[in-house]
Design a protein that fits this description.
Number of helices: 3
Strand order of the largest sheet: 1-2
Signal peptide: 1-32
Keywords: Signal
Radius of gyration: 25 Å
Structural class: mainly alpha
């Protein structure tokens, strides 16, 4: 499951109208990014089996563990990408908040 994320651009100059911010937001294309909800941990295989079963299915069990370790690496990589998405989301929110603060500050100066 991929989440769609719209990243707004930083407005040049100190003052920008709300319409300009909306236009800039709509001009950017949506980019699919990975979130932690996209990362599913693989099931951990069990070796808690009777000895005769282990001996009979040793090769299959070894393959199951090998597959698990490969899937676990993919899971960890997914979590790293999700962390990057979270950092990008936070950075975008900080930029948007800073723009709001500038707009609010400009409105106060105009009213005075």
């Amino acid at each position: 499951m991929m989440r769609m994320f719209v990243h707004t651009t930083r407005c040049a100059g100190g003052a920008a109208s709300g319409a300009a911010l909306v236009a800039a937001s709509l001009a950017n294309s949506a980019v699919a990014q990975v979130t932690a909800l996209d990362c599913v941990p693989p099931p951990v295989p069990s070796a808690d089996l009777p000895q005769d079963v282990i001996e009979e299915y040793r090769d299959e069990l070894g393959l199951e563990f090998s597959n698990y370790f490969t899937e676990a690496q993919h899971y960890l990589q997914c979590l790293e990408m999700a962390g990057e998405t979270a950092r990008q989301d936070i950075d975008a929110a900080l930029e948007a908040y800073a723009r709001l603060q500038v707009l609010h500050s400009d409105e106060k100066h105009i009213q005075e």
